[in-house]
Design goal:
single chain, 946 residues, alpha+beta, 6-stranded antiparallel sheet
Length: 946
């Protein structure tokens, strides 16, 4: 079919479809418009019905509000004092009240008690009128009385006048209607609502409320009647467009007439259904329903006039007709032009493109940007051309990739090699000519069993590919690790046609990984597992022990006095020693039954994997101790060491690796504190001791905060029993334990590092005491010696803090003497000498305490700026009985004199000690023979003098 004929037929088809759709839409629009107006009428009528009921309820509520307000006003109570009584026609009485008259009148005028269009009547029990009130259009009336000179007229306080006879006739009708309503109400009712026509205006209706007034005894004291005009319905804006009529069901009389009169009589209304449904009449839609006011039945009807929506329907008909005419004139040429653009032009382009494909030219694209189906067809054609071009490029790229640096091998579906690239020739050592026709089994290394290859081919069959590490063999027989990827190539039917394998030599990569693993998980010095590796091994061991329900043991090993070896012989010797320790551990425990690790420094962990008894584990621990006690040859010299070992037995119930090492560490420290070179099995008592240590640490912190430490002073005596100075000795006045001697807390403070804070406190207190003594002639020349620990002295700010304490206390630095032990000089002697020189430059003296008990070295005495040597009391105590002690004391005294150092002896407890020391040349003493350590005030009073 020619394209022109196709375009015409499609245009006509679109016109017919459009006209049919418009006709259908017009009919649907008309029906929807009509339904809309019916729905709108129903909604408006329902709203009107609810508004009608709400208006009646509001009138009732207004009456109840007025009743409440009037009840609250005491003028309506029977006990109100009456000041005037007038005879009125009809044997009724009118009363004028005095009590709260002005307040009631004001409230009535302002509408507080009665709303607009409301009236109130008060009757005695038998119907005699007591009072009459009304508030009509803001004109208040309060009581009534005969007008002057007019017997038949009442003059109200507002100035309003009414004839008596019609008024009382109207009041009697109101009373009668209210009385009948209340009598017909249930016997227990004290109030009732009723409807009443106005006696004076027959078209006016009122809603009434009659209420009994009871005395305190329960008797009827009177009646109160409240009236409200129903004109509120007439003025309700809800009924402006909606017509409303209300009829008395008993009489058929219309009782409410709105401004829009409904064109039906009561007989017509009564004939309609009473269920509120919409009824279509020539006059419009009508809704009829029944309501009851108290015991008074009413019928009401709403009318939605037809003219409200008939005009809209006529306008809709006209608009629909003109729309059809306009569309007929516009759609046909418009569709003809559109199909020329949408169909004819794209089809022509596609036909020309097809002719180009037949001629072998498929690179030229169709230039069509439409988004419709023709545009999609053109894009599909262009995509097909791009796919052909991309496949040509892929073939070129694939050829280049195949000759890349990655080894590639292709086999047929029977696993026979059909092609390899140059990189694979280099990797395997075979040429392509040698490999083609062979199978990959040629490369097998023998390291993998049949199960390995079965699992590999099972995964290729299931997932189409496999990747992994494999060991293969080169032509020269060399085995090497290879990362191999095998991919199955399938045709469109899903059948395997070839296998493509890519291979890379990963020997260097694996070596690097092993090196990284060694660095990450092993100690570089001893090649034992590090802390991280040990934790992994112990976690795996716990799981295994739980499964196999067996035991193991952990030995936590710390080398005794290793720091001294490291400091005295250097770190190189220390490292060689640690390597020897690792070798000894490997020797004493079989490889298959052990885990070994170095946690850092001189701490090692050995784990026995055998399931043994506790005694057998202890025997293993003793074997480790003996092995580490053996002498070790390092660079031609022999060194000995001893270990402190803590042991913990691991059970199947053990859960936490951290807790295991913690307990083993606690047991090790217990062994070290018990004398070193021991094996200690962890018990609950050790945990208790650890808790006590923690408590002691907390107590020391508290003692520093609360100034529980005090200083005692022991005099230092020279020739003629003259006092040359004192030594400050710390004591702890514990609030519960009393006086705690220093040997109970000083070693622990050194272990925890709290000795630094304690030492700083001692220096500050000593300087303050020197300041106080400087104020007295008898003590102003005393020197004060203070012991300084190695940890305190090695603090970076020790010099500055000491000088600051002297400056703050305003003390002569020459009165302060610092006592250091020999172990201080074994650590960084150059730095020690520098600090001593800085302090000595301002006048501070230095004494070497406990000389001869440690690693005594004459080089220290030669190079360090010392002022005094102190002979330790261990040599003085047996001076008179032990020739060796006397020889040592003699040597120290001679050495001090030759170096021009002062010398003082500690521990002088008898006169014989003093005499012998003087004979040997020592003329300064300190000990109990002269005085025990005393408080500062005793030094000032010299109570210690002999």
């Amino acid at each position: 079919m020619p394209l022109q004929s196709l375009r015409t037929q499609l245009s006509l088809f679109v016109v017919l479809v459009t006209l049919s759709a418009l006709l259908g839409l017009g009919a649907l629009f008309y029906h929807s418009l009509k339904s809309y107006h019916q729905t709108q009428a129903k909604a408006q009528m329902d709203t009107g019905f609810f508004t009608f009921e709400e208006t009646l309820s509001q009138i009732k509520a207004n009456l109840m509000t007025a009743k409440t307000g009037l009840y609250q006003h005491q003028s309506f109570l029977p006990s109100v004092r009456v000041i005037h009584e007038y005879e009125t026609p009809g044997e009724a009485h009118a009363y004028l009240f005095d009590h709260e008259k002005q307040a009631l009148a004001q409230n009535l005028k302002e509408g507080y008690l009665l709303g607009r269009y409301q009236q109130a009547y008060l009757f005695k029990p038998k119907g005699e009128l007591i009072g009459f009130f009304q508030n009509h259009r803001s004109r208040s009336v309060y009581g009534f009385k005969p007008a002057s000179g007019e017997e038949n007229t009442l003059q109200f306080e507002s100035g309003y006048k009414r004839p008596l006879a019609p008024l009382f006739q109207e009041i009697r009708q109101i009373w009668q209607q209210a009385q009948n309503t209340l009598e017909n109400a249930p016997s227990a009712a004290t109030q009732a609502f009723f409807l009443i026509r106005s006696p004076s205006h027959r078209t006016q209706w009122f809603v009434g409320l009659v209420s009994r007034i009871q005395s305190l005894s329960g008797d009827t004291a009177g009646f109160m009647i409240l009236l409200n005009d129903l004109d509120a319905l007439i003025h309700n804006s809800e009924f402006d467009d909606l017509k409303l009529a209300v009829f008395d069901q008993n009489t058929g009389q219309r009782i409410i007439k709105t401004n829009a009169q409904i064109p039906f009589k009561w007989e017509d209304i009564a004939a309609f259904p009473h269920d509120g449904r919409l009824i279509e009449t020539p006059q419009g839609l009508i809704q009829h329903f029944e309501v009851t006011f108290g015991q008074h039945p009413l019928e009401a009807a709403f009318l939605y006039p037809a003219h409200v929506y008939e005009q809209e329907l006529k306008q809709a008909y006209s608009a629909l007709l003109w729309s059809l005419i306009v569309l007929i004139l516009l759609v046909l040429p418009l569709n003809y032009a559109v199909f020329h653009h949408v169909l004819h032009r794209p089809l022509s382009s596609l036909m020309r493109a097809t002719e180009r494909i037949q001629a072998g030219n498929y690179r030229k694209k169709i230039q069509l940007k439409d988004q419709n189906e023709m545009g999609q067809l053109a894009r599909a054609y262009n995509n097909m051309m791009d796919e052909i071009e991309a496949r040509e490029e892929d073939l070129t790229i694939s050829a280049k990739i195949f000759e890349s640096n990655v080894g590639m091998l292709i086999t047929d579906r029977f696993n026979t090699i059909i092609q390899v690239n140059h990189a694979y020739e280099t990797l395997s050592g075979w040429t392509a000519k040698e490999l083609i026709g062979q199978t990959p089994s040629l490369f097998k290394s023998g390291r993998h069993g049949a199960a390995f290859y079965q699992q590999m081919w099972r995964k290729i069959e299931q997932q189409g590919t496999w990747s992994g590490e494999i060991w293969n063999r080169r032509k020269n027989g060399e085995l090497y690790p290879q990362w191999l990827t095998i991919t199955a190539v399938k045709n469109d039917a899903g059948d395997v046609t070839h296998y493509l394998a890519t291979a890379q030599d990963i020997a260097e990569q694996k070596a690097a990984e092993e090196k990284i693993t060694q660095l990450a998980f092993y100690d570089p010095l001893t090649h034992l597992a590090n802390r991280r590796k040990l934790f992994d091994q112990l976690n795996a061991l716990l799981a295994q022990l739980k499964i196999e329900n067996r035991h193991a043991a952990v030995f936590f090993i710390d080398l005794d006095d290793f720091k001294d070896l490291n400091d005295s012989r250097g770190h190189e010797i220390g490292d060689l020693f640690l390597v020897k320790v690792a070798e000894q551990l490997r020797t004493v425990m079989p490889e298959e039954d052990r885990l070994l690790a170095r946690l850092g420094g001189d701490e090692f962990v050995a784990v026995s994997l055998k399931d043994l008894s506790d005694n057998a584990y202890q025997a293993q621990g003793m074997a480790i101790r003996r092995a580490l006690n053996a002498p070790m040859e390092l660079e031609g010299k022999t060194y000995r060491s001893s270990p402190s070992i803590g042991m913990v037995v691991i059970t199947p119930e053990t859960q936490d690796v951290t807790e295991i090492l913690k307990k083993a560490d606690q047991a090790m420290y217990y062994a070290k504190r018990s004398g070193k070179n021991q094996l200690q099995v962890y018990t609950d008592d050790i945990d208790l001791a650890v808790q006590k240590k923690k408590q002691l640490q907390a107590d020391i912190e508290l003692a520093l905060e609360q100034d529980q430490f005090v200083l005692y002073y022991q005099p230092q005596i020279t020739e003629g029993n003259r006092v040359k100075g004192v030594e400050a000795l710390i004591r702890w006045e514990h609030p519960q334990r009393g006086m705690v001697p220093p040997f109970e807390f000083i070693p622990f403070a050194e272990e925890t590092g709290q000795i630094v804070a304690i030492g700083d406190w001692v220096i500050r207190c000593a300087c303050q005491q020197l300041h106080q003594w400087a104020q007295h002639p008898e003590t102003e020349a005393l020197t004060l010696a203070v012991n300084v620990s190695i940890d305190q002295f090695m603090q970076d700010d020790f010099v500055s803090k000491t000088l600051a304490a002297l400056e703050q206390a305003d003390v002569n630095p020459q009165r302060l003497e610092l006592e250091l032990t020999e172990n201080v000089f074994m650590t960084q002697p150059t730095l020690i000498s520098q600090k001593m020189t800085e302090l000595q430059a301002v006048g501070i003296r230095f004494a070497l305490d406990d000389f001869g008990t440690g690693y005594s070295s004459l080089s220290y005495l030669k190079s360090l700026p010392l002022d005094q040597l102190k002979i330790d009391q261990t040599f003085v105590r047996d001076l008179l009985e032990d020739e060796n002690d006397e020889a040592i004391v003699t040597t120290v005294i001679s050495l001090a004199k030759s170096l021009k150092l002062d010398v003082i002896a500690e521990g002088v407890e008898t006169e014989a000690h003093q005499t012998r020391l003087a004979e040997l040349g020592c003329l300064a003493y300190q000990g109990y023979y002269f005085s025990k350590p005393v408080k500062a005030d005793a030094i000032l009073k010299r109570q210690w003098e002999r």
